[in-house]
Amino acid sequence: MKVNACISAPSRGVGRPDAYITTNGWFNGLTNCYIRVSTLKAGNGSTIITKKDFPCPKGSVTNLHLVGVDVHASSGQYATYVTVAANGTPPSPWPGTPRSPFLTLP
């Protein structure tokens, strides 16, 4: 399983969180499974300001591209964070899955 979290600025004042995921069948057999792409705002303990859930893929996928909710802001630093939830558990990060570097807006 490999996850690359990214954030880009497609236009002034907009941050676009996304992730590229390669699974090698990691999700097979899991129920109620979803991947969450969230945007964090830097500050006193990062705050989740957007999130979007995607169903877990069946079988193996390579570089599945998931795009979260755009952030519209006049200032601040933002990053993408990716978590997974399955079998009724709360969302949690994969071990070794860092957040993206912070992007400064505007």
Mean pLDDT: 89
Helix/strand-derived category reads: mainly beta
Rg calculated over all Cα atoms: 14 Å
Percent helix, as a range, is under 10%
Roughly what fraction of the amino acids lie in strands? over 45%
Describe the structure.
- The chain is 0% helix and 52% strand.
- It contains no helices and eight strands.
- The mean pLDDT is 89.
Give the arrangement of secondary structure elements.
Elements: E1 2-11, E2 14-22, E3 34-41, E4 47-55, E5 64-67, E6 71-72, E7 76-85, E8 103-105
At a glance:
The protein has 106 residues and is mainly β.
Structure characteristics:
106 residues, mainly beta, four-stranded antiparallel β-sheet
